[in-house]
Structure formats: structure tokens, C-alpha cells
Design a protein that fits this description.
This protein is an alpha/beta fold. Helices cover 45% and strands 16% of the residues. A five-stranded mixed beta sheet has the order 3-2-1-4-5, sandwiched between helices. Helix 1 packs across helix 7, helix 2 crosses helix 3 and helix 4 packs across helix 5. 31% of the residues are buried.
Length: 193
């Protein structure tokens, strides 16, 4: 068994090729999962801070279910694909459901970073790396970058790896941010072997 923060720390080494060359003093990894958001701050290759709080993609799924009367599966597909099924009134989706969720995500991340800044010697981050299932939501990385004045990227631990022909590369790239912990766990075996 492994602790997720150590798995994220190992997986962070896979992202070095995605960040511009240069010295990075502090990088924040924000993992927005189904029900939990975790902020991990890395100095070099070492995790120096972790904070979890209850907030995640399930909140958006529940909002979609409630507003449009969809099943859990339909709402999950709508969230992932960025559109509602036929028969729903998608005209109000962006402003009534998606925008409040993205605003809440921004606020949660900003609040977590304020806790970090107030309890450390750091006053800013060099980069923010978004991961987790919510990371690929259109516009989220740009909104976070703008609000926090910090370059923000979406994690892809598979960038630079060769992919077997039988693997759907497009689906893998879409789901890659949600696989940071899994990649870190897989690397444990490689690093320990």
C-alpha cells in the first residue's frame, strides 16, 4: 500500500518535460477528484506541503442530475463530454451549472494556496499543474492561470511515452490527468525493482 502524496511525488517527475526549462522553486499540483481536492506543493522533486478539502467533480455531476433530471450515468457522461444529451435544454447549462462550478473550483484552489502561503516562506508558485478528472474541463486551466497569475498546465504523465497501437491514444490523453496517482503507484514498482 502507498500513500497518494508519495505516488503524486513520483509521478511529478514525469511532468518535467512539460514545464519550461529553468529552475522551479515551487510547483503546485492540484488534484481535483470526485469528492476531494488535494493541493501538493513541490520544491524540486520533494513534496513540501499537502492539503485536502472536500470538493470535487461529484458536485457538478449532482448539479446536472438535479437540474436536468438525468441519471447518475447520464450526468457523468454530460460532464465528461461537455454537453447534455438530446432533450435537455442546454442553453442555460454554461451559466446556470458550469460557471458556478468553475467559480467554486477557482475559489477552492485559491483558498488552499492562501493557506500554503501563510504557513510557508513562499509567496508565489512558479507553476500550477492540474490533475484529476476535472482538470480537463474546458477553460479551467486558463481561468486558474488568470485568477492566480500563475502559469497553469494540465498534467499528462504519458507525454513522451510510446503508446501501443492497440491503445486509443486520444482517450488516453483525455484521461491522463486522472491517472497521476496510478502512474506514481506504477513507478513505485519500477523504482523499487
Amino acid at each position: 500500500m502507498d500513500i497518494e502524496v508519495f505516488a503524486r511525488e513520483r509521478a511529478m517527475t514525469l511532468l518535467s518535460s512539460q514545464l519550461p526549462v529553468g529552475q522551479h522553486h515551487a510547483i503546485g499540483m492540484v488534484d481535483i477528484g470526485a469528492s476531494m481536492t488535494t493541493l501538493s506543493v513541490f520544491a524540486g522533486d520533494e513534496s513540501i506541503y499537502t492539503r485536502e478539502h472536500l470538493f470535487g467533480g461529484m458536485q457538478l455531476t449532482e448539479d446536472i442530475m438535479s437540474r436536468y433530471g438525468l441519471s447518475f450515468e447520464e450526468a457523468g457522461r454530460a460532464k465528461k463530454q461537455g454537453g447534455l444529451p438530446d432533450g435537455c435544454e442546454p442553453d442555460d447549462y454554461d451559466e446556470a451549472v458550469l460557471a458556478p462550478f468553475l467559480e467554486a473550483a477557482e475559489s477552492q484552489i485559491s483558498r488552499s494556496l492562501q493557506f500554503f502561503f501563510s504557513s510557508s516562506e513562499y509567496a508565489e508558485l512558479d507553476y500550477i499543474v492540474l490533475c484529476g478528472g476535472v482538470a480537463v474541463m474546458e477553460g479551467l486551466a486558463e481561468r486558474i492561470s488568470k485568477r492566480l497569475s500563475t502559469p497553469t498546465i494540465i498534467a499528462n504523465p504519458f507525454a513522451g511515452m510510446s503508446v501501443a497501437a492497440r491503445v486509443n491514444a486520444r482517450a488516453l490523453a483525455r484521461d491522463a490527468p486522472a491517472m497521476m496517482v496510478a502512474c506514481g503507484l506504477a513507478m513505485r514498482r519500477l523504482n523499487d525493482g
